[in-house]
Amino acid sequence: MNILILGSGGREHSLAWAVKQNPKCDRLICAPGNAGMAQIAQCVELNPEDGDAIIKFCKAENIDFVIIGPEAPLALGVSDALRAADILTFGPSKDAAQLESSKAFTKAICDACNAPTAAYAHFTEIEAAKAYVTAQGAPIVVKADGLAAGKGVIVAMTLDEALDGLDDIFGGAFGAAGAEVVIEEFMEGEEASFFILSDGKNILPIGTAQDHKRVFDGDKGPNTGGMGAYSPAPVMT
Predict the structure, then answer these.
(1) Do residues 55 and 83 touch, judged by C-beta distance below 8 A?
(2) Torsion over CA of 22, 12, 98 and 232, rounded to 10 degrees?
(3) Contact at 8 Å (CB) between 195 and 172?
(4) Which among 164, 187, 181, 171 is positioned nearest to 129, based on CA atoms?
(5) Predicted local distance difference test score (pLDDT) of residue 96
(6) Which top CATH class is 102-185?
(7) Cα 196 from chain centroid (whole Å)
(8) How many CB atoms lie within 10 A of CB 127?
């Protein structure tokens, strides 16, 4: 198979490393890839968010299978465009990707299926958000609703931090991702992830992982897209 992986991060590098070992992989291309991925695959200059360009490339290069790594192409509907062009694709639809691209959407889904989650409120106006934060007090968690590369969450230990965070988000620090906010109760403890694959009808558990997001040691500093992760996560058994 000729396989195309979209993305340029550590996640996509790991996917490329694993795919390369599969005997079904005859040719591996990454777009745009990175220096590490270039050691095991062919890297090409192709925008992962440009569905039309990706389809054109796939047809020209006889790509059999596309794996989409980043959230942004999924949120833009690249997987839908590829499937509409009859190109086998790994990645959720634009509708399903809202679970990642909108925190308010995910909260609404959790409410609808009675899934336990932190108490929250959703705002589109800064003054209402500030009034809510002031009434709730700190510590409290302020989140840009959309995709912000893992940096749109502010764990505010003081009221001033929360209010400053709202100023930053609504002030454009995260672009369109900050047009709305979700404000959650602060819950202390360790965070871990449990992963499954699904085709829409069946589920396949594939393991656990723990991500460390704070920029400094000892869980200090602002959140990042991830300072490191490991699997399996000992806190989940």
Answers:
(1) no
(2) 80
(3) no
(4) 181
(5) 94
(6) alpha beta
(7) 15
(8) 10
Contacts of 83 (CB under 8 A, 6+ apart): 89
Helix (H, G, I), strand (E, B) or coil at 210: strand
Distance CA 229, CA 213 (A): 9
The CATH architecture of the domain made up of 2-98 is 3-Layer(aba) Sandwich (3.40)
Between CA 89 and CA 75 the distance in angstroms is 15
Instruction: State the pLDDT confidence band at 200, using cuts at 50, 70 and 90.
Output: confident
Chain segment 201-225, per-residue pLDDT in tens? 999 999 999 988 888 988 888 878 7
Which comes out higher in pLDDT, residue 32 or 227?
Answer: 32
Q: How far is CA 167 from CA 132, 144, 154, 178, in A?
A: 14, 11, 12, 10
pLDDT single digits (tens) 45-66: 999 999 999 999 999 999 999 9
Residue entry with tokens 């009808």: 201
Could you tell me the residue ranges of all domains in the chain? 2-98, 102-185, 193-230
